[in-house]
# Entry
Amino acid sequence: MTWRSRRDRDLDDEIRQHLDEAVRERVERGEKPDAAAQAARREFGNVALVKETTREMWGWMRLDRWLQDLRYGARLLVRNPGFAIVAILSLMLGIGANTALFQLLDAVRLRSLPIPHADELVEIRIADMTGARGNFNWHESVTNPIWEQIRDRQQALRGVFAWGAEQFNLTTGGPTRMARGLWVSGAYFDVLGVRPAAGRLLTVSDDQPGCAARAIVSHAFWQREFGGSPSAIGATVTLDAHPVEIVGVTEPRFTGLEVGRGFDVAVPLCADSVIGVGRLSAGTTWWLSVMGRPLSGWSTEQVTAQLRAISPALFAATLPVNYPAMNVKHYLGFQLEAISAGTGISRIRNDYERPLWLLLGTAGLVLLIACANLANLLLARASARGREIAMRVSLGASRGRIIRQLLTENLLLASIGAAAGAGLGLFLSQSLVTLLDTDGNTIVLDLALGWRVLGFTAGIAVLTCLLFGLAPAIRATRLDTASTLRASGRGATAGGDRASVRRALVVCQVALSLVLLVGALLFARTLLNLMHVDPGFNPEGVSIVSLDLRPLKLAADQRLPTRLALLEKFRGVPGIHGVASASVVPVTGSAWGNHAWMADDPGKGQINGLLNRVSAGYFSTLGIPLVSGRDFDDRRDTRSNVLVAIVNEEFARAAAPGGNVVGRTLTIEQTPNDPEQSYVIIGVARNAKYVELREEIAPTVFLATSQDTQPRNWVIAVLRSNLDQSVVTASIARAAAEISPEIAVTIDRLATVIEGTLLRERLMARLCLFFGGLAALLATIGLYGVTSYTVARRTNEIGVRIALGASRRDVAALIFRETGMLLGPGIALGLMLALPAASLARTLLFGLEPFDGMTFAAAAAAQCAIALLASGFPARRAVRIEPTLALRTD
# Structure
């Protein structure tokens, strides 16, 4: 027996004893037993009410009633499986989509780094880098000389460190196998509070000039490459053809400070002189991020003030000797600042934060449409339960008590939908991350259901319960008890006021659905525009070959001949139709630029142009025609001859509108590595995209590889072939091995790389089309439900119309007119809402404006088609009504 049963039994015994005592007293006064019993009951009052009042005083009855309502709600769902399945599926889709997107936002933007006291971490960077010259990372970075000055001069941080991202080749020749690497200063792990899972971590003593390279590997890399064996400590890993000793493994939860990019191997900064490219003394290579923890009690503003106080002397001490004179003033005026870095840095955050917020808003609109659908279902269900509710009221139940019961039932429904949605959200978020992955660019995100995600899902569950349940619950209690109990059949379900609420909900569904359709079409057309944009060259059949020559330890005067020999070797491979080298492969995200001007017309002004150093055959290999002049010639255009250049049409237009620039001389501004140089223009090439497909064509200058005075230790080549990619890869690897088996080779398809630059647009188009389709489906269901309800409620009227001579066409027109009365206001409201919504996506669009008339018209037409589809089946049912049967209905 339960505690509640015992308390109820005790209460029954107490009431019975009280009544027995009252009857006995009356009998002793001379009353007859039957009359005494009736009088005692009248005096005592309503027994059920007394029990209810007593239970209220027990305190735990609220919980007991809530549990009763939950059990009753569960029984109703079991008894109405069709309603339960539709409602739960609607909630699961809506809540799941919102949970998945919020989970991604939480992982990318909101969640702190998995280190102790992450909120204390600050990043030190230059507030405004205008005028900085040299080689840059995607993130605001500093040079190693600047880092060393910060380390030695700062007095606001109790711990400070520097780090930079890298890619290391794990093989010693042939096809490459890349590992994600980190350059870290000695205090990196200590300041972050990271502990080793095996061995030890790097310390300050490991990061000293002339150090021996040592490596720390991540826990994931340890498991993947060494099976988690303790013997990995002391073993070696090959990094860019250099054997490096492994001294430790990081704890499993630590994946680095760049959200979305894990790491495999970390080596000390000092090892750059051994296995890097010699950046420790370079004052114009911006590659290190600096972070630290402030002294106790110091705010970020106080740290910034101290850093700005030391900035003038710091930048004066690190000014590179060969820094361009016109930029020296900018360099000496740089100011350091501190910003919060508790959430780390993230490239995918920069690229995807805004799209994810927009998608979350889109998913929220889908959930609103689903809630409107459920509210419509519950209104219809409340009509069917009118007699039950009226009976409860007649038995003494208050309106508040019935509303609480109905909301409890709805909360149960929302909870089941939220639980299913959380599971779906975990699957969807992992699927979305997979969409962002590309070859060699695996996204690493912690997608665990943390407290923030669970709280968000729970909040959505409560919110949806109120959105779809409160209005129907209140409406359900606004009834005439006597009339409802007397009514039966359809008469109990017909209510003009309730029908108007259902129509209003459908109008809102149509409006929100139209907003999502507009967004879906805008992003779909953006993707199509980008996929069909003319880049100015033909990427099909073109492969990008990256060759690492560092293992050969070539002297500076041997690099150019080796490069040219490799290109000649590739040209001899059967099936290869064109080969050339390039410092920048177009539309892959890289860039190199500088100011240039016409030497014979300096008054014309400087042209902010892009640069590329290419070999002979570059333009023919990529399919870029020369408008005038000639191509480079590796034998003719040598270092000992006059320096030459080829410009694109845009540069020619900017330099000499309407004139010929071939034969004229242009001058390129001094850089930190090269003096000011003049070049004779020998040709003009057709315009082509340089950095990305979205860009406007920029003035571009091409220089000859054969005249490069500072050739690098690596080669980037482009080649054209009709062969299968696997055949090309094997053939090029064999050809490179004939020059030297130590050359590391990486080969990618140019078309694939360009497709990878459209990941964001593809994600937005796919998800918006999915959400738009889901919204259209929900709106169709809503329109269908209301139209079907109208046909059912007006069956008798339709029968009378047909009996009086109305044609089938007249009846169909009546139903379609009813739909039009919902569709018209919905489309008008949707267009008004879509205008500001579309403006939020302006920066994500390409080739069209947010208020594109064709897009809005197509969305409205699609919505009309949906409405016709939704009302077609009820209209068909209406025209088939038999008057004799309809007139017999109630």
Remarks:
- The mean pLDDT is 86.
- The first helix runs from residue 3 to 28.
- The CA atoms of residues 348 and 387 lie 57 Å apart.
